[in-house]
Amino acid sequence: MIRLAIQGVGVLGGFGCGLGDLEKRLMEGVPAFGSLIVPVEGQELNMAAYTADSAPLERFVNKRATRRIDHFSRMALLGACLALEDAGELESSMERVGVVIASGYGPTRTTFSFLDSVFDGGDACASPTNFSNSVHNAAAAHVAIQLKAGGPSLTVSQFEMSVCSALMTTQLWLAEGRVDKVLFGAVDELCSVLGYCWGRFFPGGESMIDPFSLDRQTAIPGEGAAFFLLTRDEQARYGHVSQIRQESIQAPLSSGETYLLNLDGHAGCSTGYRQVLPGSASVAVYTPYYGSLPVGQAFDLAVAAMALRDGRLPGANGFAGPADPGWQLAQGALDRNRLICLKCDGRGRVGHIRVEKS
Amino acid sequence: MATKEKLKQMLVEELNLEDMTPEDIDDDAPLFGEGLGLDSLDAVELVVLVQKNFGVEIKDMEEGRPALQSVNSLVSFIDSKRTA
């Protein structure tokens, strides 16, 4: 299969907006949390969460044009604009550009709001705009329409494995020559219903993600978007995605690589990392900077792209390093010009994305 | 609140016309195209909003076309249905 050249990166989340904000946060430490208001038994509780602000979208698209676009799609559109801007391609022709989006949850706010409106007022009073925005592919459609992307668009939802699956589709489209470039992105959003469920499933209210405390549930929910402009080119501004694999956890992986683990504080998923990674593996974790969300692996891919560009892993501080599995914490200059972003889903599946310097 | 004020506020808030205030809306300007700049999806949304907020149903195109010309025509339609 062909390699995917990473030409532009656009991210937003609890750390701020843009690769520069993420980089700054990685240097300065774990960001302060936002909050999610969750109704519980007639009261409103504030739950710690990494929330994203999509207001900077006004820099790219006028307000009138985005008035029917909800928060989920706004995050996606902003991520896409940032990736194009980063690649210097905001003004380029979008005729042969495809859009592929990964999402674990989809547009949760609009979906639940639409369902509420049906319950409250019947189907005759349900908002058609809310309905059209409640489908998972709404974000890809808004991105394609606003940016005039003339290629196909698709949304892939496979919960924790969404990023790997969507990236495989991207690879296929570029290999087939269906498009010249793909705006590949991942987006997930939080809402009060999700916060309520989170509180029921994971009571305790942790104060921070402690990624290497593998047996403790320390996840804090996050939202945001991570987008990439990908091409078939031999030259890449950041590096190439050279391998994408999704499989059942079987034999342990090689210890001679550096892994960016998506350990996001979910104790149920930690077992997989223990099974798949040998004790001496070199690892880094960045989840405390953007939170726990199904498409978190895309943020690791953004960090990996940045690391390949700079030849060194960004510092990650403010949380304890690896303990019992004996993994070695990777930091500073890269030992080799490649990294593997690894995601285990807690149900015996593992997704690998290998990125390397051109 | 009078029907007209309530309707204008609803247009701004529910259709997310963030660049306008209710006072900016001309009572006689066309709602679609040149005037307020609404489109066909807004028309469907408006039918739902009028039913939800005023309890008035716009049954078909025959009723909808003249009613949805301007703020004044829509106010007249709503008031006439409510008093009927």
Automatic annotation (TrEMBL), chain A:
Q: Where is the Beta-ketoacyl synthase-like N-terminal domain?
A: 61-236
Q: Which InterPro entries match?
A: Beta-ketoacyl_synthase (IPR000794), Ketoacyl_synth_N (IPR014030), Thiolase-like (IPR016039)
Q: Which Gene3D superfamilies match?
A: 3.40.47.10
Q: Which residues form a coiled coil?
A: none
Q: Which UniProt keywords apply?
A: Transferase
What PANTHER family does this protein's entry cite?
Answer: 3-OXOACYL-[ACYL-CARRIER-PROTEIN] SYNTHASE, MITOCHONDRIAL, POLYKETIDE SYNTHASE-RELATED
The name this protein carries in UniProt is Beta-ketoacyl synthase chain length factor
From TrEMBL, chain B:
Record PTM text:
4'-phosphopantetheine is transferred from CoA to a specific serine of apo-ACP by AcpS. This modification is essential for activity because fatty acids are bound in thioester linkage to the sulfhydryl of the prosthetic group.
One family name in Pfam for this protein: PP-binding
Mostly located where? cytoplasm
**Statement: the UniProt record of this protein carries the keyword Lipid biosynthesis:** yes
- Pathway given in the UniProt record: Lipid metabolism; fatty acid biosynthesis
Whether Lipid metabolism counts among this entry's keywords is: yes
Q: Mind telling me which InterPro entries this protein's record contains? A: ACP, ACP-like_sf, PP-bd_ACP, Ppantetheine_attach_site
User: Which residues does the UniProt record annotate as the domain Carrier?
Assistant: 1-82
- Name positions with the PTM O-(pantetheine 4'-phosphoryl)serine: 40
Provide the protein's localization: Cytoplasm
Keywords (alphabetical) are: Cytoplasm, Fatty acid biosynthesis, Fatty acid metabolism, Lipid biosynthesis, Lipid metabolism, Phosphopantetheine, Phosphoprotein
Q: Which family does it belong to?
A: Belongs to the acyl carrier protein (ACP) family.
Q: What does this protein do?
A: Carrier of the growing fatty acid chain in fatty acid biosynthesis.
Identify this protein by name: Acyl carrier protein
Q: Top-down, what is the taxonomic lineage of the species of origin?
A: Bacteria, Pseudomonadati, Thermodesulfobacteriota, Desulfuromonadia, Desulfuromonadales
